[in-house]
Prior knowledge:
The chain has helices at residues 22-45, 65-77, 98-101, 178-184, 261-271, 298-305, 321-328, 333-347, 352-366; strands at 2-6, 50-53, 83-85, 108-110, 117-120, 125-129, 153-159, 188-192, 198-200, 207-209, 225-232, 235-242, 246-254, 279-288, 311-318. By secondary structure, the chain is α/β, with parallel strands linked by helices. It has a 6-stranded mixed sheet with strand order 4-3-2-1-11-12, covered by helices on one side. The radius of gyration is 26 Å and the shape is elongated.
Amino acid sequence: MKIFHFSDLHLDTPFSSNYFDITLARQCRLRLRRTLSKLLHFAQQHKVDAVTIAGDLFEGDRVSRDTLHFLAENFAKIAPLPVYIAPGNHDFYGRNSAYSRHNWPGNVFIFKRNKPQPVELSDRITLWGVAHNMPDERKSALTDFHVPEDGKMHILLLHGSETGPFSEARAVHMPFALQDLQNCGFNFSLLGHYHGARDLPENSPLALYPGSPQPLNFGETGVHSAVVLSIEEESTNIKAFSTETQLFHTLHLDIAKYSNTDALAKAVFENIDDLGEEANFLRLNLTGVPERQQRFELDLLHQQLTEKFDYVKIRDEIHNENELDDLAREPTVRGAFVRQLKEMLSVEQEDSELIRLAMKYGLQAFEEDKINI
């Protein structure tokens, strides 16, 4: 048996609150729709036996009726291939939720309870799904649960937070530890909630997060995928397929290393060679202390970068000589620090690059900013 699994598509994510203008945000939302169609077509091509979705398929508080019709139509196209959905915290199942109000095609099964609920995939494989019934399910769904001792393979479908060594910096919902999955007797667990793909554990996985099919903001790095789980006898095999066609890039450059704006643009292109197929978004942080005669045209740099990037945000953290003169006049520890290093720069030619780096990192530390070395 082969199961095609993905999670966290987040259809109807606004995007506009994430730096983008209305047009760019609309393009991102349309890209998520195209991704859903591609995923389901992929499942058909690979002749899988079931599709599983571990929650956050859409944004429940803003999903449009048009998006629900779009989903239902696409699910109907792959019938009789069954689709099993375990609602997450963004698309939780409730009396007035989109899942309960909308008319779904017959090949779609939506788990409704916040405790494991069984569905027989075959005479030897049982799928257990869990639904979020509210947007903030903070308790474990697996407490005091164990699969029956019936000799079958038991697969879990869950949207939740692994709270051990595989955790992600994300709000905790329906928490569990890897040991909990083992104690419950699951042979394998198909998970959702974390947007970066990961196997639990890495070398011989008993569970996996496929990650969100598309990254949704600058904080989402790592792998984004969908997975085919193959079950043979009492063994499992997983194969991941990369799904992201838009990428968010964050780059830090020290301008002291470059003499002009064109050199800066060239450095950006050289440092970012992994471009998304459909869209790329760039956040460029410029730091450092330039030579007094150095001048950069950031408007020109922005125009050059938009030739390859759909969105460019340049964060100017450059400390020019006038700013340093102002800082040096401060009656503070920071002022004393700047005065001392400016004095060293006036007499030390050989170590000037090292002194400018010390100035850069020291000022970042005084500003309580993250230091990027």
